[in-house]
Write a structure and sequence with these properties.
The chain has 443 residues and is mainly alpha-helical. Helices cover 85% and strands 0% of the residues. It starts with 15 loop residues before the first helix and ends with a helix.
């Protein structure tokens, strides 16, 4: 396999145009992942609360596994970015990723019945959630292949090559899942049809990526993994895998606690969370841009550009999230009616959406500030505060408050804990900037 060279198209002078040019493809790539859950919500929502609740449980169990693979992908990307000899990294990364996916898929198949029974007490939901999960597990190896292709195209300076293929595959997911759910040309599968359609879409996207990759190479050789490369990838991956796992587990516990309010609350929450994934897409792109732009400024010890880029990225993220908040606030009823048919679910979703959109404004700040701290070599501090906010503040308060205050309190707690965490991260970043200023004056 030919060597892969890193190509940097990062702008040097802080400007909004340069920031958007870098952040937009990264957000576009994440859009496809958010669309998967939103499509399942819209299509299965017409089957009723039980079906949607089962999809929410199955989706988040698979999300936990996919989060581990995403953390592995971060390690692969970090390895490729830090090494000058990139030949063979794709083979080592693919072998490692596929091995991890196979292990996770096997464990999930064996443990899924017990895990789902622990999460939900309603046997009707348990059965549907189990079948949904089993069909989704077939897509795990496709996620690994897709991640490898994302890293490759990113290193080639062509992030849109990855985004447009994945978006095309997920467009196909809509009619395919609809046909499988409602039985158009095939036997109706209900909620399980959404899972099968999603897995097929993942494989379609991954294979299309691989086909384009093969066509771009003079020769393609998948070699045996190199032990040194595998070891380095694991060393770079495990912190991200742990962070992703803790985040996914906090969401899983959140859904488990919320299930005590009933299937309707669980189904409505699934709808709200999927819309929330769309609301943080600008933050994801800006956060990844911060890693590149601020990281480059830090490497060059350019204090002025560090401040300028961080201010521009934070301001852009805040304004974009506020604009989305206003849009969601005005269109909350339309969004609820579009995704759901049950009046009860529509009312619950509509009442929660504005509050969660406000929480996503704060989440935007958390994502960007945590990326700034990570690139400033304060990754442990960033991960500690974010994880403490989720596990030490949000979940305990939620368990305590839900029995007395009900569904709407959940979303107020989302706002409260994120306000505290974003404030702490802001103070940490300001402390870092002040430290740079002091060091600059001393030198």
């Amino acid at each position: 396999m030919s060597s892969i060279s890193s190509i940097s198209n990062s702008p040097t002078k802080p400007s909004l145009a340069g920031l958007i040019r870098l952040a937009l493809p990264l957000s576009g790539a994440m859009l496809s992942q958010a669309l998967l859950g939103l499509v399942d919500t819209a299509l299965v929502g017409h089957l009723g609360g039980l079906a949607l609740a089962s999809v929410s449980i199955g989706s988040y169990l698979v999300f936990i596994l996919a989060a581990l693979l995403t953390g592995l992908g971060t390690g692969i990307h970090a390895y490729v970015s830090q090494t000058s000899t990139t030949s063979g990294w794709l083979s080592s990364g693919l072998w490692l990723g596929l091995t991890v996916a196979a292990i996770l898929g096997t464990l999930a198949t064996l443990l899924a019945p017990k895990v789902i029974a622990t999460f939900v007490l309603d046997d009707r939901i348990n059965s549907l959630a189990l079948h949904y999960t089993q069909w989704r597990l077939w897509g795990l190896p496709a996620i690994v292949l897709s991640i490898a292709m994302r890293v490759y195209w990113s290193q080639q300076g062509q992030p849109w090559q990855f985004a447009k293929i994945l978006l095309l595959a997920h467009v196909v997911n809509v009619p395919l899942s609809y046909a499988l759910i409602y039985g158009i040309g095939v036997p109706a599968m209900g909620a399980s049809g959404a899972a099968l359609g999603t897995s097929i879409a993942l494989w379609l996207g991954a294979l299309m990526q691989w086909f384009v990759f093969v066509r771009s190479q003079t020769s393609v050789q998948i070699r045996a993994p190199q032990i040194d490369q595998v070891r380095q990838i694991i060393q770079l991956s495990w912190p991200s895998m742990v962070q992703q796992f803790l985040f996914a587990m906090h969401l899983a516990v959140f859904m488990w606690v919320l299930s005590r309010l009933g299937a309707s609350a669980l189904a409505a929450t699934f709808s709200v969370l999927n819309i929330g994934l769309l609301l943080v897409l600008p933050a994801v792109g800006l956060g990844q841009a911060a890693l590149s732009l601020i990281g480059k400024a830090i490497a060059q010890q350019d204090i002025k550009r560090i401040k300028q880029w961080s201010r521009l990225i934070l301001t852009t993220g805040l304004l974009s999230s506020l604009a989305l908040l206003i849009l969601v606030w005005l269109a909350r009823d339309c969004l609820a009616n579009l995704l759901l048919v049950s009046r009860e679910l529509q009312h619950l979703t509509s009442s929660a959406l504005p509050w969660y959109a406000l929480a996503m404004v704060l989440e935007t700040l958390i994502i960007i500030l945590s990326r700034c701290l990570i690139v400033a070599d304060r990754r442990k501090r960033a991960m500690l505060w974010v994880s403490l906010g989720q596990w030490g503040l949000f979940l305990p308060l939620m368990i305590w408050c839900i029995p007395s205050y009900g569904f709407i309190m959940v979303w107020w707690l989302h706002i409260g804990y994120r306000a505290i965490v974003s404030g702490i991260l802001w103070l940490n970043w300001q402390q870092y900037l002040q430290q740079l200023k002091t060091q600059g004056q001393a030198s």
